[in-house]
């Protein structure tokens, strides 16, 4: 059933290159879902968090600005089928640098509104534990 829904969603957005890129890459989908969950962790969506999310989509993943709204629509539909643990499971077997990148992106989203809510801290801490990443790795500059 989940695959049928995914195929239906994919067919709706098939013409958009950014959505197609996300739909065809389960790890990218999982990362964007985790970033979106971080945006929602404090119970509100701030403009600064959305600006950070859009920048990460463009700069880190090469998603065109013109596709980001449709990517968000796709994630809203896909997100109902995937919980946080399932999304994190996509990362467990990846190399440490890729896992650190997810953690850094999540921290960047959490800090974007200049207010670090306890719910954001808990989500980040739980994610770091699941990915076997030290909090120190999140604040270290990339090599």
Architecture overview:
With 143 residues, the chain is mainly α. 73% of the residues lie in helices and 0% in strands. It is built from 9 helices and no strands. Helix 3 (26-40) packs antiparallel against helix 4 (47-61). It starts with a helix and ends with a helix.
Strand content: under 5%
Assembly category: single chain
Largest sheet: none
Percent of residues in helices comes to over 70%
* CATH architecture annotation: Orthogonal Bundle
Which regions are unreliable across 5 or more consecutive residues at pLDDT < 50?
Answer: none
DSSP summary: helix tally: 9
Shape descriptor reads: globular
Number of strand segments: 0
Radius of gyration: 15 Å
Secondary-structure element series: HHHHHHHHH
Q: Span from first to last CA?
A: 43 Å
CATH topology: TerB-like
Mean pLDDT: 85
CATH superfamily: TerB-like
Structure class: mainly alpha
Briefly summarize what is shown.
Helix content is 73%, strand content 0%. With 143 residues, it is an all-alpha fold.
């Amino acid at each position: 059933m989940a695959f049928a829904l995914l195929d239906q969603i994919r067919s709706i957005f098939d013409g958009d290159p950014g959505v197609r890129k996300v739909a065809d890459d389960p790890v990218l989908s999982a990362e964007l879902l985790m970033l979106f969950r971080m945006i929602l962790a404090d119970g509100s969506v701030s403009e600064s968090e959305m600006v950070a999310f859009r920048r990460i989509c463009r700069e880190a993943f090469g998603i065109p600005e013109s596709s980001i709204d449709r990517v968000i629509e796709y994630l809203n539909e896909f997100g109902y089928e995937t919980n946080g643990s399932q999304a994190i499971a996509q990362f467990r077997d990846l190399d440490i640098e890729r896992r650190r990148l997810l953690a850094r992106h999540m921290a960047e989203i959490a800090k974007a509104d200049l207010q670090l809510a306890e719910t954001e801290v808990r989500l980040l801490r739980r994610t770091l534990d699941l990915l076997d990443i030290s909090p120190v790795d999140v604040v270290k500059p990339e090599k």
